[in-house]
Fold these 4 entries.
Entry 1:
Amino acid sequence: MSPAHHSAQHRWRVLVLVAAVLVAVAVVTRSPGTAAPGGPPVSAASTVSAPNAESSAWYCTGQTTPSGQIAAGIVILTNTGTRAVSGSIAAVTDSGATSDTGIAVPARGQVVANVTPPETGAWMSETVVLSGGGVAVTQAVHGPAGWAEAPCQSTTSPQWFFPSGLTTGSNALFIALYNPTSTPDVVDLSFVTPSGTSHPINFQGIVLEPGKTEVENVGAFVQNQARVATTVTTRTGRVVASETQVLAGSGSGLAILAGSPRAERQWSIPESLEVSGGASSIDVFNPGPTTESVTVRARLASGPLSPISAQVLPGTSWVLSTSSETRIPEGDAYAAEIEAKGGPGVVVGRVVAAPSTAQAPQAGMASAVGALGMVSPSHLWVVPSPGSTASPVVPGVLPAHLALDNSTATAEHYVVYVMGRSGTRTLTSGTLAPSAFISFGDGLLFGAGLNPLLVRSSGPLAVSEDVGPAGTYGVVTMPGIPLDAALAG
């Protein structure tokens, strides 16, 4: 779809809407993990607002411009509501060049935005401002190393955490910073590696003026590290941050990850698979001031495996090599739940590498689903697809597996729908036993094509979808995005 530019009158309405959203952002509390007095409850960093909201905003960062080559991106808008929503996408590059593109998303529809590229710059961020709610915004990137997708963020924060990263060999790690607010930000970056904690002087006191974006090449200063956990902290203001990872070696891949704004005590990886000749790990980062007792519980479809535990000291990471664990059999899908006790929690991610003979891309990186992402006020999660039939992010892209993980002590009823402009259609339904997971393969998902999915559950649930082409599970993963309120109609 190629949306036309707004008329002068419509541009004025959008500018007023942008100003209102930025004012709302500026007054949000800076306390991580708590709600402002009388304010909204704490929610996941990517949450779809209620369909009847007067306006909503999303922030995407970490893409390169078409001339940037590393991770050229597209923005995907998925409307879960029953009325069309319009808005504007304001793009800005690291050179300061800007552009503005109008967008319209039909009811129950998904569109790939034809964002007007700014004239100069290598890296790009976008603010998506919409005239209503019910719309999820995601981004997909592609480049010589591979492709990836991730949710954009629906909030700003004074801090962001990234549990995984690599700067060894030809691996390249970038942290993208974006200030969509109306006040200047001062930002510090720190890194936890096997060699200790690093605070490179070049990454301290970074000044981000309103509307500016900047991307830091971590590998230039944190060199040859097999694992890098990153903390982004503001001295003043609130920002958006994401991580772009280029993976190289015996195989290749690309990852883009939205940051986690807070540590959490419970995480889930709804589906994993160890393959012969591959390597994978669960990365557990403790950014807090107290030691965390962390337990990883893996479950096959046939039952639980022996748990794995570690004491994770403050400001350190635990890298659990799941591919080296003999208790996890090769070729059997499993879910993993990560629980932390002793403090505010941890941040969890996963790194996956299939053999170089596997389908490209072979390597990938994804965030686990945190406790806040398992809870949806509407009991609904949307799973956007990576593009549309007319505009796929890469040729041949299709969903491969949809996984649901129930970490509660109560059986949960679920329904999986495929969205279409004429309404929703049920793909499957059932009851998920306590502490159990289920995976639906491409045989079921083939009928959905590149239409987005909705998942309804009677209680908390971790939702994720693996998408191909990819070498194995976890190379390209999209989490289910919770909805703030029940759909209208």
Note: Residues 81 and 134 are 5 Å apart (CA to CA).
Entry 2:
Amino acid sequence: MQVKHRWVNVTVVATDGLMPCDVLVEGDRIAGFAERGAPDSDGWQRIDGQGRYLYPGMIDLLQHGMGEHLYGDAEQGAVQAASEKLLAHGTTGFLPSIGCLSPDATGPTLTELARQCRLADGARAIGLHSEGPCFGMPGAHNPENVARPSVGLAEHLIEASDGLLRAVTLAPELPEAEKFARRLARDGVSVHLGHSKAPPEEVPRYLDWGINAVTHVYNVLPDPEPDGSGVHKLSLIDAVMAERGLALGVVADGIHTHPRLLAILAQLPADRVFLETDAMKFAGTPGMEFEFYPGYWVRSAPGKAVRDRNGGLCGSSLTPDEAMRNYMKMGGADLVQASHATSLVPARVLGMEDDMGSIAPGKLADFVLLDADTLAVEVTVIGGVERYRRTA
């Protein structure tokens, strides 16, 4: 017999507003809503939310590490450890991500991470993101491992990931990029424009290839050089912002993306923006120096960008709940907008919005209780089961 829970004394953060109501959970799904104080039938166990917000579980689509692990190292237990740690940060789903690894390492690393995803039992490790290796600009990734796209490479990534490849970041201006993107999209992989020098005027046609998102929109997408005419030249960032069918990933730490740029993004329709941490090893910890790839040392610090020894950016040390609060504080987004950016839009980018991303009847009961004043994560529930509760 399925357990039936009635969450009372909560305000639901729904897709179109705040709803003061009770939430009915049967098994691992949301069964419906009920008016506060309305009687219920026998068999419902009441859980008091103590006046908190009931917020949809956060989904992080780009995360290179968390805690003591860097996923690209494929250490045993890395995904499991992250899935446990992420519960305290309101995260119910995430994509362990790899950067530009060597051709010999890419396949075995994806295969091992896919195996670990299937075993992880904390936050849902819902698949893998290969950020690269087909880049026009390497950024902080190993330039020696940048590769050209091809149908063969797409099939290699798909096969190595054992059905769990969910996203790939691609510079679409590269030769054979269209065939590469179309092959990935045929298998339901979300293709993200990123690390690119693509001509801005070419952006509209990329959507036909299956490109539906942009990786960290204000980073490693260059601005054109001014020509002295006084005319604003269309930039790649302008071009992707103009495409209503593209979801814009953003690292909301105030460093990768200036607070005033977050304020611009917060004025777009809610279905355009999603928060991704681009987190690195030691995210969610006091932080320390580590080797991202051989000979390239970087340092992590809580809530800040990860930087190399020359000050260059190399991902962040954000957690998803920090990103959410930053988007509200720095960008001026309200709680409903934030829930789209942390939850619904990421689910939609992956084609999983029927099951995840919002609190609605029929969807998985993946949600978080947030303190009404501080928005700190108090409780995390996955599939109707409480997996985390903050202690005093």
Note: The two ends are 34 Å apart (CA to CA).
Entry 3:
Amino acid sequence: MPLLPTCPPLLIEEGLFDEICRSLSQSGYAVLPAALPVLISDALMCCLATMEADGFRNAAIGRGVQSQVNTGVRRDEIAWIEAQSHTARLWLEWAERLRLHLNRHLYLGLFSFESHFARYQPGQFYQTHLDAFRGRSNRVVTLLTYLNHDWLKQHGGELLIYPDNRSESPVALGVSVASVLPALGTLVVFLSDRFPHEVLPATRPRLSVAGWFRLNE
């Protein structure tokens, strides 16, 4: 039986990046199950496994001097991803290629990328929020991915994405446009200042990576 031709990895990657661009330009968000390359998700898992337990801290809301821990709004723990390790660099280099692709095709002027691990223990949540407010932040595009094997509907922990806050169409209060299970390798990308979203409580530990493409301050 003849072997089927395979696509070069960079060609596959470009197709994924094209799909993200199409979704952002058409609807402002993209949900792509099992889309993150296995090499990258394995690298993130490896990076997470080698982190010290005290590398995580309680997540805060707000930035700079306005940053504060508020467990009534969010209860996850985070650890920022730096480029010191080889495994972390694989993720950051992949995000850099996506940044360049977004700039080339959508002319967004994205300048940099930051990201962190987020760890939710059972019952923890993050209430509805925006990642950026127009005119008050330089976060432009949010990138999320998940590191949870064998995640089932009954485990909960969905990401709910609510309608574009600039939409003039009447939408029932509390109705989401997407409900995303945090299954391994799922990618979620959306415009940071336009889509309110929340994380529902789960019945098992929930691991994710949250990142933001930013403008130059």
Note: Helices lie at 9-26, 38-49, 86-106.
Entry 4:
Amino acid sequence: MAKLYEYFKQLTDEGGSDLHFAAGLEPRLRTHGDLKAMQGRPALDGDQLDALLREIAAPEQWQVFEDSGDLDFAIGVPGVARFRANYFRQERGSAAVFRIIPEKIPALEDLGAPEAVANLADLQRGLVLVTGPTGSGKSTTLAAIIDRINRNLTKHIVTIEDPVEFVHTGRQSIISHREVGEHTDSFREGLKAAIRQDADVILVGELRDLETISLAITAAEMGSLVFGTLHTNSAPKTVDRLIDVFPSDEQAQVRLSLSESLAAVVAQLLLPTADGKGRVAVHEILLRAKGLGNIIREGNTPMIASVIQGGRGLGMQAMDDALLECVKNGRITAEDALRKATDRAKFETQLR
């Protein structure tokens, strides 16, 4: 058994989410958002850490790391969990971060997702974006939505990821997992192929560049239900980000395409619970509604906030409203909510 598995076991036993290594420093784990030193685990020098990391990497993966100084892959440890691994070189030598991917895919109900998020699984077509900073639970939310589709609908689902994280077993649906670098050359190539593969549902791990974004919009226009992620923190900023990646002379056409294909934006944050024993996801939700298409076509994204407020009966909600509700329910502290609020001055007044 690889020595690293002992660290993985300790991570899961202590309820952690991430495991950090850096040459010359003691290993650390992240629990409920905070980093702390692992008990009973001394610092590792460069040679010790390299030996630890090399043991679980395939020879060709280690060669990629040696050549480039970076490596991403996923590894499953039976009876423990699946982990997303990132190796990198830094000033003192090697370093690595492992993120736990639960073997059991959580249900949307267990995640506390609003009904409007769960209902995204019932969409027939369109572009759905789940956004937020790194570590905000985007992949987990998307996995739960895909799992809901898989359990209830007969679809062909294609996931394009780097690396593959949650592994779904086909139930009502057929699921094809494709890993960038192993099964397809890039997100772009994977998306092009998915359009030809009669995919009803396409999950794109990350919309990284102009061509990938363009293909995702095209696939949604052609009738697929496309899920993707971005590192934006609100619905208006997400729309702006999608459009701004294109040259100025193409943006009018992109606005037109996006106005017809965008089905939903879910901006997600993960905050510590008030008792410090866990974390809770908080969502801003924008759904397709009357007037949204015109706003996108006209480039008037500040008006998206008005669409959200006017669509509360449909399940839409602004991030600040969701944060305030969590404070009122005692799920998170006012201090944590205030740090994440979009309009802090107004939010502080509402808290009072």
Note: Residues 237 and 342 are 12 Å apart (CA to CA).
